[in-house]
Amino acid sequence: MNNSFGRLWLRSQLPLLSGYALLTGLVALLCYLYRLPLIVLIDLLRFSLPLLIIWLIATILLAKHRQALLARQLPQADFQPHSPVEGRLATMLTKSQRSSRQILQAVRQKQREQNDHRDLFAHEIKNHLAILRAQAEEQPQVPSKQVRAAVQQANYYLDLLLSGERLAMTSHDFNFQWLPLAKLAAAIVQENAALFINKQLVPEISIPASLRLLTDQKWLHFCINQLLTNAIKYAKPGSVIKLVWQTDRLTICDTGLPISSTDQPRIFESGFTGQNGHQTTKSTGMGLYFVKQVADQLNFNVRVFSPNNHSTVAELVFPPDSIS
To answer: Domain Histidine kinase, which positions (predicted)?
Structure first.
């Protein structure tokens, strides 16, 4: 019997022991006042004390058994409360166990999704590196255009992989500052120059040079880059991709495959590629999912829709107090 269990058990039996001592003292006082034979008190102790000891031993054994049941976390199956307090504690323990199981299941599911995402992105990176290797084996010199395109795609999936890992963390190191959106957009277009050249696309940027946004530069860069990469991926060769600022939103518009009405409600789901993704066979279905996660945490909205059958529009809508 450990000290904690002994103290708690003794505290629970204190009313009984106090009552027994009080009763014994009362009988002793009556014997003294009424000059009763001492044998009365002795017989009382002789017959009641063994019963008290047996009772105390039984309560110790029962308490240890009930403690073992609780240690096995079986309050509903085998543990039957003997008091209102025990009943309340058993209910609280049951709720706590249920909540813990749900949290554990959610964590395991999240870990499985992270592993699936990691495997998917690693596979895509390996594919593009394998393409470069095959080209290098087939010819002594690989055109720089092909190298830049393959490296750009590998960097794209590596960025997705790292961003997914950062988003999975419980806290993020956000650094809010006033950013010149036109400068950031131009830098992102320059980073994707190889993809623009490869598909003979023309970027058009219409963003006021004086416009400033209060947000995190790294994550805004990630969002714009994902939306622009999607536009490049689905745009028709030789077409124009526009980045336009309108009142409170950055709009990225292409003339590629429109989003079907059946796919529209699910475009931000994890791993959803839709009809366009199946047609191009280059979509992982994770870019828009990550963009939505970032937008929710940075307090701006993201919309992707097809206003007609000839284009797709992506919008980042910012709150008024973050625009200068």
So the answer is: 120-322
